[in-house]
Amino acid sequence: MAGRLTRLSRGETTIDFYGRRKVGFIVSGLLVVITIASLFLQGLNLGIDFKGGVAFEVPATGTLTVETAEKILTTEKIDAATAKIQILSTGNTERIRIQLGDLSAETVTKIQTALAKESKATVNDVSVSTVSSTWGWNITKKSITALLVFFAVVSLFISLRFEWGMAVSAIAAMAHDVAISVGVYSVFGLEVTPATVVAFLTILGFSLYDTIVVFDKVHENDERFSGSKVSYGDIVNVSMNQVLMRSLITSIAAVLPVFSLLVLGAGVLGAVALREFALALLVGLITGVYSSIYIASPLLGMLKERSAKYRSMRGQLSLKSDMAHLMATGAPLGRRASARAASDTEKSAVSPAAPVEAILSHPPRPRKKSRR
């Protein structure tokens, strides 16, 4: 165990990431299919900022509970099943938040008065927030536009800094991260708010950072192995093993504070806004690390193997000791040399050392006697 950790910290592991790319593609494909099915069947639970509506917040007392709030809605001929009722905790105080669709001004006033009466508070203690559906649609369009602009700028930057193949792979990985994150929100019915959108854009930046770290090492090793007969699959494998420890440390350092924010901020302190933001971040960070290993890098390898430079070496991978030799020397061991080394190792392990007379093809010639 200690030896493995040492090799991991030094970037000397020999994990065949590229050879196992099909497993990652299958897992991602299944998750994307589940996302699409969930979006068609139940869609997204959009918050009031996107679909519009009215939100009431009132101090929670012994007389005002979730059940009494539902009775008030039923009295006003509003289906309580369509309402979203939450209990918000802040220290020792609690408030009840009720989110509804578009309502007339008269209905809003009636509900506000009934909530104040039931909670034994004044009407001014019941806050009312109204968002029009038009404003929510504008927010949705701006979010989509920001996402598309982000993709375009990132593609241009990576194409100029590296090459177009890396740009395509990075965009595919980020689209994968967004799809999986949206799928999680759709499957579990989590509310999508502006904070969620901000978190999505944040995780795209993290996913791009982790992918660029791998691509920078791939670009460096591509130049390093340019004079050797090395397949692009080997270049991807070597690069990913060399930056594996860095990716893990970065990911753990990012996940821990987000997890604390989710547990302490949302769970203990009851900050719902923090829960929405932290949950999206947590899902995105995990998918971002996964996609940089099993989506972006394998896609890049598959694209590059089609080029004239690497087409003849397609499918050739240096594994285990061969990969270690490649990482250490910068040159492949070769199939013949690898087979010969393995054969010599096997023979030396099975048969004892032969005497010198058996190794020589003929006995030594006798020395001539010198004349005196």
From TrEMBL:
It is found in: Cell membrane. Keywords: Cell membrane, Membrane, Protein transport, Translocation, Transmembrane, Transmembrane helix, Transport. GO terms for biological process: intracellular protein transport. It holds the Pfam family Sec_GG. The chain crosses the membrane at residues 23-41, 143-160, 167-188, 194-215, 248-271, 277-303. Residues 115-305 form the Protein export membrane protein SecD/SecF C-terminal domain. Its main location: membrane. The keyword Protein transport applies. It is a multi-pass membrane protein. Residues 335-372 are annotated as: Disordered. GO terms for cellular component: plasma membrane. GO terms for molecular function: protein-transporting ATPase activity. Gene3D superfamilies: Multidrug efflux transporter AcrB transmembrane domain. InterPro entries: SecD/SecF_arch_bac, SecD/SecF_bac, SecD/SecF_CS, SecD_SecF_C, SecF_bac. NCBIfam families: transloc_SecF. This is Protein translocase subunit SecF.
